[in-house]
Predict the structure.
Amino acid sequence: MSFQRKYTIEMDHVPFDDDFCRETTALLRQAAKKKERAIMQKRKTVKILAVAAALALFSLSAFAVVKFVIPRQLFSGMDVELESLRAVVDVDNADPDAVKTMQKTFANDDFSVTFEAVAKGKALRQVWHFEHNDAAGQTAHSVSDILNNALEQDPERQTVDSLYAIFTVRRTDGGTVLYAEDGKGLTGADLGYCLLIKGYYPNPNMLFDENHWDIGTYEDGAVLYVACDITNAAAFADEDLSIAFTNTMVPSVDILAMTPAGEFYYKESYTGVPGLFDFDLDDSLADPAKAAAFKANGTFHTYEEFQSLMAEENDAA
Protein backbone atom coordinates (compact mmCIF):
# COMPACT_ATOMS: atom_id res chain seq x y z
CA MET A 1 0.00 0.00 0.00
CA SER A 2 1.36 3.43 -0.93
CA PHE A 3 2.17 6.05 1.67
CA GLN A 4 -0.46 8.44 0.29
CA ARG A 5 -3.14 5.73 0.32
CA LYS A 6 -2.25 4.68 3.87
CA TYR A 7 -2.41 8.29 5.04
CA THR A 8 -5.82 8.78 3.37
CA ILE A 9 -7.25 5.61 4.92
CA GLU A 10 -6.05 6.61 8.39
CA MET A 11 -7.65 10.05 8.09
CA ASP A 12 -10.89 8.54 6.72
CA HIS A 13 -11.18 6.34 9.81
CA VAL A 14 -11.29 9.29 12.18
CA PRO A 15 -14.81 8.78 13.63
CA PHE A 16 -16.48 12.02 12.46
CA ASP A 17 -19.57 12.06 10.27
CA ASP A 18 -20.41 14.58 7.56
CA ASP A 19 -22.29 16.80 10.02
CA PHE A 20 -19.45 16.95 12.54
CA CYS A 21 -18.23 20.50 11.82
CA ARG A 22 -21.73 21.93 11.46
CA GLU A 23 -23.10 20.29 14.60
CA THR A 24 -19.97 20.91 16.66
CA THR A 25 -19.83 24.55 15.60
CA ALA A 26 -23.48 24.97 16.58
CA LEU A 27 -22.85 23.40 19.98
CA LEU A 28 -19.75 25.53 20.54
CA ARG A 29 -21.62 28.67 19.52
CA GLN A 30 -24.40 27.91 22.02
CA ALA A 31 -21.83 27.25 24.73
CA ALA A 32 -20.01 30.48 23.90
CA LYS A 33 -23.21 32.52 24.18
CA LYS A 34 -24.07 30.89 27.49
CA LYS A 35 -20.55 31.49 28.78
CA GLU A 36 -20.64 35.11 27.63
CA ARG A 37 -23.84 35.76 29.59
CA ALA A 38 -22.30 34.18 32.66
CA ILE A 39 -19.17 36.33 32.55
CA MET A 40 -20.75 39.65 31.60
CA GLN A 41 -21.26 40.49 35.26
CA LYS A 42 -17.58 39.79 35.87
CA ARG A 43 -16.39 41.95 32.97
CA LYS A 44 -15.79 44.97 35.18
CA THR A 45 -13.55 42.91 37.47
CA VAL A 46 -11.62 41.56 34.49
CA LYS A 47 -10.96 45.09 33.21
CA ILE A 48 -9.76 46.19 36.65
CA LEU A 49 -7.37 43.23 36.74
CA ALA A 50 -6.07 44.19 33.30
CA VAL A 51 -5.31 47.71 34.56
CA ALA A 52 -3.59 46.23 37.60
CA ALA A 53 -1.46 44.07 35.33
CA ALA A 54 -0.41 47.11 33.32
CA LEU A 55 0.58 48.98 36.47
CA ALA A 56 2.58 45.94 37.57
CA LEU A 57 4.93 46.24 34.60
CA PHE A 58 7.29 48.37 36.65
CA SER A 59 7.11 46.39 39.86
CA LEU A 60 6.85 42.69 38.95
CA SER A 61 9.07 40.22 37.16
CA ALA A 62 8.38 39.23 33.57
CA PHE A 63 7.09 35.90 34.86
CA ALA A 64 4.51 37.56 37.09
CA VAL A 65 3.35 39.97 34.41
CA VAL A 66 2.72 37.16 31.95
CA LYS A 67 0.80 35.27 34.59
CA PHE A 68 -1.47 38.30 35.06
CA VAL A 69 -2.02 38.71 31.32
CA ILE A 70 -3.04 35.10 30.64
CA PRO A 71 -6.70 34.80 31.78
CA ARG A 72 -7.38 32.20 34.41
CA GLN A 73 -10.55 31.26 32.53
CA LEU A 74 -8.43 29.76 29.74
CA PHE A 75 -7.22 26.96 32.00
CA SER A 76 -10.25 26.59 34.25
CA GLY A 77 -12.32 25.94 31.14
CA MET A 78 -9.93 23.10 30.26
CA ASP A 79 -9.96 21.59 33.77
CA VAL A 80 -6.25 22.35 34.10
CA GLU A 81 -4.55 23.45 37.30
CA LEU A 82 -1.78 25.81 36.24
CA GLU A 83 1.56 25.19 37.97
CA SER A 84 4.05 27.41 36.11
CA LEU A 85 4.29 29.76 33.16
CA ARG A 86 7.35 30.82 31.13
CA ALA A 87 7.16 33.76 28.77
CA VAL A 88 8.15 33.33 25.12
CA VAL A 89 10.56 36.05 23.92
CA ASP A 90 12.53 36.59 20.74
CA VAL A 91 16.20 35.69 20.98
CA ASP A 92 17.30 39.33 21.14
CA ASN A 93 15.46 39.73 24.47
CA ALA A 94 16.09 36.28 25.92
CA ASP A 95 16.76 35.68 29.60
CA PRO A 96 17.34 32.45 31.56
CA ASP A 97 13.68 32.13 32.59
CA ALA A 98 12.22 32.59 29.11
CA VAL A 99 11.35 30.31 26.22
CA LYS A 100 13.26 31.54 23.17
CA THR A 101 11.96 31.90 19.62
CA MET A 102 13.31 33.54 16.48
CA GLN A 103 10.01 35.23 15.58
CA LYS A 104 7.26 35.78 18.13
CA THR A 105 4.42 37.01 15.87
CA PHE A 106 3.22 36.04 12.40
CA ALA A 107 0.46 37.82 10.49
CA ASN A 108 -1.44 38.00 7.22
CA ASP A 109 -4.12 40.40 5.96
CA ASP A 110 -6.79 38.94 8.25
CA PHE A 111 -5.18 37.67 11.45
CA SER A 112 -2.08 37.88 13.61
CA VAL A 113 -0.93 35.14 15.97
CA THR A 114 1.61 35.58 18.79
CA PHE A 115 3.38 32.84 20.75
CA GLU A 116 3.04 34.11 24.32
CA ALA A 117 4.13 31.42 26.80
CA VAL A 118 4.68 27.78 27.66
CA ALA A 119 2.60 26.58 30.61
CA LYS A 120 2.84 23.52 32.82
CA GLY A 121 -0.14 22.13 34.66
CA LYS A 122 -2.14 19.14 35.78
CA ALA A 123 -5.01 18.29 33.47
CA LEU A 124 -8.09 16.51 34.71
CA ARG A 125 -9.07 14.14 31.93
CA GLN A 126 -12.51 12.62 31.46
CA VAL A 127 -12.28 9.51 29.32
CA TRP A 128 -15.55 8.52 27.62
CA HIS A 129 -16.29 5.48 25.46
CA PHE A 130 -18.01 7.13 22.53
CA GLU A 131 -18.93 4.19 20.29
CA HIS A 132 -22.63 3.57 19.97
CA ASN A 133 -24.15 0.63 18.10
CA ASP A 134 -27.50 1.21 16.42
CA ALA A 135 -30.21 -1.39 15.89
CA ALA A 136 -28.57 -2.59 12.68
CA GLY A 137 -25.31 -3.17 14.46
CA GLN A 138 -23.62 -0.24 12.76
CA THR A 139 -21.36 2.04 14.77
CA ALA A 140 -22.72 5.60 14.90
CA HIS A 141 -20.48 8.58 15.51
CA SER A 142 -22.68 11.64 15.00
CA VAL A 143 -22.29 14.41 17.56
CA SER A 144 -25.80 13.82 18.92
CA ASP A 145 -25.14 10.07 19.30
CA ILE A 146 -21.84 10.74 21.03
CA LEU A 147 -23.32 13.22 23.49
CA ASN A 148 -26.41 11.13 24.24
CA ASN A 149 -24.37 7.99 24.75
CA ALA A 150 -21.81 9.77 26.93
CA LEU A 151 -24.52 11.11 29.24
CA GLU A 152 -25.45 7.53 30.10
CA GLN A 153 -21.94 6.66 31.28
CA ASP A 154 -19.68 7.45 34.17
CA PRO A 155 -16.38 8.93 32.96
CA GLU A 156 -12.98 7.66 33.98
CA ARG A 157 -11.16 10.61 35.55
CA GLN A 158 -7.41 10.97 35.77
CA THR A 159 -4.94 13.77 36.39
CA VAL A 160 -1.97 13.98 34.05
CA ASP A 161 1.02 16.31 33.83
CA SER A 162 0.72 18.46 30.72
CA LEU A 163 2.51 21.23 28.80
CA TYR A 164 0.76 23.91 26.77
CA ALA A 165 1.82 26.44 24.15
CA ILE A 166 -0.16 29.65 24.70
CA PHE A 167 -1.05 31.84 21.71
CA THR A 168 -3.03 35.03 21.22
CA VAL A 169 -4.95 35.60 17.99
CA ARG A 170 -6.25 38.98 16.79
CA ARG A 171 -8.12 40.14 13.74
CA THR A 172 -6.34 42.91 11.88
CA ASP A 173 -9.57 44.91 11.74
CA GLY A 174 -10.01 44.66 15.53
CA GLY A 175 -13.15 42.54 15.36
CA THR A 176 -14.16 39.59 17.50
CA VAL A 177 -12.14 36.50 16.61
CA LEU A 178 -14.28 33.56 17.76
CA TYR A 179 -17.87 33.13 16.51
CA ALA A 180 -17.95 36.65 15.08
CA GLU A 181 -21.42 37.80 14.01
CA ASP A 182 -19.96 39.43 10.89
CA GLY A 183 -18.75 36.04 9.65
CA LYS A 184 -15.14 37.16 9.39
CA GLY A 185 -13.90 35.37 12.48
CA LEU A 186 -13.05 31.77 13.34
CA THR A 187 -14.85 28.85 14.94
CA GLY A 188 -13.47 26.23 17.29
CA ALA A 189 -13.36 23.80 14.36
CA ASP A 190 -11.00 26.14 12.51
CA LEU A 191 -8.16 25.94 15.03
CA GLY A 192 -5.35 23.44 14.62
CA TYR A 193 -1.68 22.90 15.31
CA CYS A 194 1.14 20.57 14.38
CA LEU A 195 4.24 19.82 16.43
CA LEU A 196 7.41 19.74 14.34
CA ILE A 197 10.84 18.20 14.95
CA LYS A 198 13.72 19.35 12.81
CA GLY A 199 14.82 16.75 10.31
CA TYR A 200 11.40 15.11 10.02
CA TYR A 201 8.81 16.00 7.42
CA PRO A 202 5.61 17.60 8.85
CA ASN A 203 3.03 14.99 9.80
CA PRO A 204 0.10 15.74 12.16
CA ASN A 205 0.12 12.11 13.33
CA MET A 206 3.72 12.08 14.59
CA LEU A 207 3.00 12.97 18.23
CA PHE A 208 -0.73 12.40 18.34
CA ASP A 209 -2.36 10.27 21.02
CA GLU A 210 -5.78 10.27 22.66
CA ASN A 211 -4.45 11.60 25.98
CA HIS A 212 -2.56 14.64 24.69
CA TRP A 213 -4.06 16.57 21.80
CA ASP A 214 -6.18 19.31 23.25
CA ILE A 215 -7.03 22.92 22.38
CA GLY A 216 -8.55 25.37 24.87
CA THR A 217 -9.81 28.87 24.04
CA TYR A 218 -10.95 32.00 25.84
CA GLU A 219 -11.66 35.37 24.26
CA ASP A 220 -11.66 38.74 25.98
CA GLY A 221 -11.49 42.19 24.43
CA ALA A 222 -11.24 40.82 20.85
CA VAL A 223 -8.13 38.85 21.86
CA LEU A 224 -8.46 35.08 21.53
CA TYR A 225 -6.25 33.12 23.94
CA VAL A 226 -5.48 29.57 22.77
CA ALA A 227 -3.77 26.77 24.70
CA CYS A 228 -2.37 23.86 22.65
CA ASP A 229 -1.27 20.66 24.36
CA ILE A 230 2.42 20.05 23.57
CA THR A 231 3.09 17.47 26.27
CA ASN A 232 4.44 14.85 23.87
CA ALA A 233 7.02 17.30 22.53
CA ALA A 234 8.79 17.07 25.91
CA ALA A 235 10.20 13.66 24.95
CA PHE A 236 12.17 15.51 22.23
CA ALA A 237 13.23 18.42 24.46
CA ASP A 238 16.90 17.95 23.51
CA GLU A 239 16.07 18.33 19.79
CA ASP A 240 15.07 21.40 17.72
CA LEU A 241 11.32 21.91 18.11
CA SER A 242 8.78 24.02 16.24
CA ILE A 243 5.01 24.37 16.18
CA ALA A 244 2.68 25.34 13.36
CA PHE A 245 -0.50 27.13 14.47
CA THR A 246 -3.19 27.47 11.80
CA ASN A 247 -6.88 28.00 11.15
CA THR A 248 -6.99 24.50 9.67
CA MET A 249 -8.09 21.72 12.02
CA VAL A 250 -5.50 19.27 10.63
CA PRO A 251 -2.44 21.11 9.21
CA SER A 252 -1.19 18.32 6.95
CA VAL A 253 1.39 18.07 4.18
CA ASP A 254 -1.16 19.79 1.94
CA ILE A 255 -0.15 23.11 3.51
CA LEU A 256 3.11 22.38 5.39
CA ALA A 257 6.42 21.34 3.87
CA MET A 258 10.15 21.09 4.64
CA THR A 259 13.27 22.01 2.69
CA PRO A 260 16.17 19.55 2.22
CA ALA A 261 17.96 21.49 4.98
CA GLY A 262 15.14 20.75 7.40
CA GLU A 263 13.49 24.20 7.44
CA PHE A 264 9.70 24.24 7.69
CA TYR A 265 7.45 26.49 5.61
CA TYR A 266 3.89 26.97 4.41
CA LYS A 267 3.12 26.24 0.78
CA GLU A 268 2.33 29.23 -1.43
CA SER A 269 -1.23 28.01 -1.95
CA TYR A 270 -1.99 28.35 1.77
CA THR A 271 -3.73 31.63 2.68
CA GLY A 272 -4.71 30.96 6.29
CA VAL A 273 -3.18 31.93 9.63
CA PRO A 274 0.59 31.51 9.05
CA GLY A 275 1.80 30.71 12.56
CA LEU A 276 5.19 28.95 12.54
CA PHE A 277 7.38 29.14 15.63
CA ASP A 278 10.53 27.47 16.90
CA PHE A 279 10.82 27.00 20.66
CA ASP A 280 12.99 25.36 23.30
CA LEU A 281 12.20 23.15 26.28
CA ASP A 282 14.41 22.20 29.21
CA ASP A 283 16.66 19.35 28.02
CA SER A 284 16.01 17.54 31.30
CA LEU A 285 12.48 16.80 30.05
CA ALA A 286 13.83 14.65 27.21
CA ASP A 287 12.81 10.99 27.31
CA PRO A 288 14.90 8.99 24.78
CA ALA A 289 12.87 5.81 25.24
CA LYS A 290 9.57 7.58 24.64
CA ALA A 291 11.05 9.49 21.70
CA ALA A 292 12.26 6.22 20.16
CA ALA A 293 8.78 4.74 20.56
CA PHE A 294 7.24 7.70 18.74
CA LYS A 295 9.82 7.45 15.95
CA ALA A 296 8.94 3.80 15.49
CA ASN A 297 5.27 4.48 14.83
CA GLY A 298 5.79 4.91 11.08
CA THR A 299 5.03 8.63 10.84
CA PHE A 300 8.58 10.00 11.11
CA HIS A 301 10.22 10.54 7.72
CA THR A 302 13.34 12.44 6.71
CA TYR A 303 13.20 14.68 3.64
CA GLU A 304 14.72 11.96 1.48
CA GLU A 305 12.36 9.27 2.82
CA PHE A 306 9.33 11.47 2.22
CA GLN A 307 10.38 12.27 -1.34
CA SER A 308 10.93 8.57 -1.97
CA LEU A 309 7.44 7.77 -0.68
CA MET A 310 5.95 10.46 -2.92
CA ALA A 311 7.88 9.08 -5.90
CA GLU A 312 6.48 5.61 -5.20
CA GLU A 313 3.00 7.13 -5.04
CA ASN A 314 3.48 8.86 -8.37
CA ASP A 315 4.82 5.68 -9.97
CA ALA A 316 1.85 3.73 -8.67
CA ALA A 317 -0.51 6.29 -10.14
